[in-house]
Amino acid sequence: MEYRYSRRYYRSEFSVDPPEKSGREIMSKGSSGMEVILASLENCRDVQTTLNILYILTELLSVGRGHRVEVFVSKGGTGILFQILIAASKESPPSMELMLHLHSLLAKVGPKDRRFGMKARLSGALNVTVSLIRQNLQNTKLLLPCLHVLRVYSSNLVNAMSLGKIEGVELMFKIIGPYSKKNTTLLKVALDALGALLKSKTNARRAVDGGYVAVLLSLYQDWHRNDTRCRHILIRKGLLVCLRNITNIKLGRKAFIDADGMRILHNSSTECLPVRTLDPLVNTSSLIMRKCFPKNRLPLPTMKSAFQFQLPHIPAGGPVAQLYSHPPGVDDVVDDSDDNEEAEADTDTENDEDEKDNYMLNDDIETDLNKLYPKRSLCRPFEELKVYERFFLELSEDFQGYTLKGPKSTNSMPLSASPSSLSASARSSRPVTVPTAQTQPPNDIPTPRSQGDCNSTKGHETRPSSSALKLTPSPPVTPLDLDNIHLSKDKDKKEEASSPPDGDKVIEKELVSPFECVSLEEKEDLNADGSERVRREGSPINATRHIQSPLLLGGIPTLRVGSGGSNFGSDCGSEGADEEGGEGAVLEVPDTARLLPLHNPDLYVEMVKETCSVPRYAEVAYPDYFGHVAPTFKEPLLERLYGVQRSKIFQDIERLIHPNDILDKVVYDLDIPNCPLVKDEGESLKFNSQFESGNLRKAIQARKYEYDLVLNADINSNHYHQWFYFEVSGMRVGVTYRFNIINCEKSNSQFNYGMQVLMYSVQEAISGRPCWVRTGTDICYYKNYFARSSIAAGGQKGKSYYTLTFSMSFSHKDDVCYFAYHYPYTFSTLKMHLSKLEDLRTPQIYLRQDVLCETLGGNHCPLLTITAMPESKSSNHIYQFRNRPLIFLSARVHPGETNASWVMKGTLEFLMGTSTLAASLREAYIFKIVPMLNPDGVINGNHRCSLSGEDLNRQWQNPNPELHPTIYHTKSLLQYLAHIQRAPLVFCDYHGHSRKKNVFMYGCSLKETVWQSNISATSSDLQEDLGYRTLPKILSEIAPAFSMASSSFVVERSKESTARVVVWREIGVQRSYTMESTLCGCDQGKYKGFQIGTRELEEMGAQFCVALLRLKRLIGFRNHQHGWDLDNDVIAIPAKTVSSSPSTYVMEEDEPSFLEAIDYSAESNDEDAEPENELADEAQENLDQLSD
Fold it and tell me: Quick check: is 396 in a domain?
């Protein structure tokens, strides 16, 4: 009765209203009710009165969504509770009821008070609570609120360390064990408190030293076996959280391995997989196992590229100097940092939330206003730049030597260097082989071949079977040398091939879209006088064609000349062909020229012969030879199946648990000189990447149908592993193969968001479907267990590589298939396209091709000039011709961004087209185009760099004429134009983007940069024409793949040496852009939900031209110096906030910092990986992958 009377008394003192209304009034803003209660509590010396006030506070704070607790905390209530707790602990004996209610109230208040841990430590409450727990281990009623408070205490790292010193960790283990289903609520809270304590590395080491890792694993096994109805998932999860925190340190990971933790968690997780509600346990177990999986070294002798290129000189302090500065014995594949060991001592972090906020600040935005204004003077004297006048003949041409309305031959502009002459005259022609699978025969026809034999096949004559490209078994065939073969068009030779079956004759009559088959005859077949046969007109190869049989475009079975009844064959051979003696071999070549006006296989081979590569490639890939016809259907983004990544990770973990199941057999290795295809008489796949733009360094057969693939680093580099392009053959039908590319570097990829790899099937091509298609299932991208040394990570320690994994079932037996990161576009393809573009020129088109410079690798960098011929030789027309605004375009500075070349192809084809829009565009502008800024990188299969080992798009501020010739001379062209007051109206550099969807632009804006930073500037400092937004806005209206929302116009410090920023700042081009095209697909517009293809990329290039034409018309209507209504509409759209972090050594692939969220949650099991460094690492990764 006394308690009830006291509560009524206190209520009557404050109000006569109902309790709910009284509570609202006490907690309302401006009310002094809470102050009165707290003052009474602080000054009360009577235990019972104190209890009564605590009861009232408990009732008040139990209502609402936390606002009342916040008011209580703001009035100093937490400190008063700690004062009473300390005072009560000094009583002898202390009141257990008072201790119970104090801890209950503290457990309610603690999570809302950011300074709770510090207040508890300074007041001495930690010792009181621990002592109380120690003395009342059997008193469940008191123990539960004490554990709740201990859990809140431990959320502060310093408190956790202090509690560990007074044996708080050992105390928790006394409470959680042994296994018992009694007091499960108490056990759950105790595990939460223990998990919080073990976040401290000091406490984690204490747990390891006490042997508690085995205790936790034993408890987990007991709960796993006995919790058959899954009613205690939270307890099992709590045990796993404790293990997860212990394994954040190296000693914990070792103890986990020693206690057989990998097997225990793997087996238990496997049993949990069928039950969806147990996913939290599976995910946490997976995270622990991935973390404890011993770090392996990549199976490479060195992280440096397998190819070496000697530079003319190596700048001191540059990346190449650092690369070769290590002593010969230093292992650059793995080092001590790969153990990922943490600092020995924990750090005091009182303000964790404040630190998290600091990581999100963008300190990469340029804040120096002086750097945001264009430079007033150019650095180079005009006399030095006058040599570039020869690249601008159109600015002084008087056309007196031309008949402007005459036939094409009379007014075509002479080429400075035709595509066929883009190879230096001194460059000797070298043997190039027809596309080959470089495979060995299947098991049924064993043909051992030594390493020396493998060497001898390169560049030598081959006697092919009658179905050299039919992929049915036959004796081994070496690569075909096009210098030593003869292609015949003589129909009389047709009888030499075997006759087709009757069924094929019937089908042949139904074929309507013929394809050619090239008859390969040996070079010894000469004319009677010993001379070689005369080259037929139009064929760049010393050979002629022979139409053997038509092939239908669309998949109808085709005529197989000399196939012996087999459906398909390749240089793997054919038994039927072998019986026929191999004379009159037939190479079936789809007549892609009917659908690809810019493609010619023979011309492509000629271009390959003139291309210089570091490895001196002598082979041609089938896809580049046949060509790619874009499918007419759209390919949807791949829907990711639930649990696919987890399943792949478990398969990886099984390698450690069951090592005897792993073959670990090397089947392809570029580090083996002259013979990378390892001799194998088994059923292994055959790999090859020794062709232009190819990249695959090593292939290892891990299981019967699983292969680990290692990519080659960029030449003169030890990183930039992302681009791949390789050939696979020797496959079986009905088998699912798994491919793992194990040394990717980027922290996330669009492969996690619907993107698929690309595959090209030779059998499909010969059947009339020569195209790259998106393929692969079970695709995911995740961090693996291969350590990345600090040497290869630019000094960053504890980094790991990432795995791209996908599964593939092949449709054709012994097919030859190619896989690529994106649609390949080689330098030889570009030269072939430029040569064919000349055929599109009409008398009204002014087209000139110049050689801008020679690259480090000895290749020529083409420069195009495209505009319309003047209407006549009159002075007015010549004046109008010379004074057209200039548009400067460039592409492919990063070799791995092949989509940039496809966009450029669309631009070039539109510019050379016959449409009214194309003609108007040529009449409006003079186009200067460098279609490939990094030919050497493209040729040699680099992902990011040139042969100098540097990212060329980071050299624009001060390019070296010897090491960065294409950038040096391109910048010189722009500097020359600036000197003669003819700076381009628009500069645009085409790029590809690997971690965002859609097509978008980066531009430069003084205002928008200031808006996104803390720069204090007056309105007079921010005078800026808004015209920079017009072109992107036009594109957003006419190009379905373009996204204005993804575009940004902020200038960042890390981009100050990119083309976009340098051209804007130094050349004074307001409309200086980088146009980024996704490698994946679109999430808006007409193409939403689909992967992007070459058709859409080429369309984007054409739409860019249309946007330029509309821009010209806008300029004609309004004075662009005063802004346009369109710009005023656009400027209202807020720019996306850019978040990034300080610059680092490794600029892997410029990704913007406002990326899609990295999906490392339940699926990839990385949500709490290395928690004490997670924020810093994430901020570091964001800048490592910036764009441009």
Answer: no
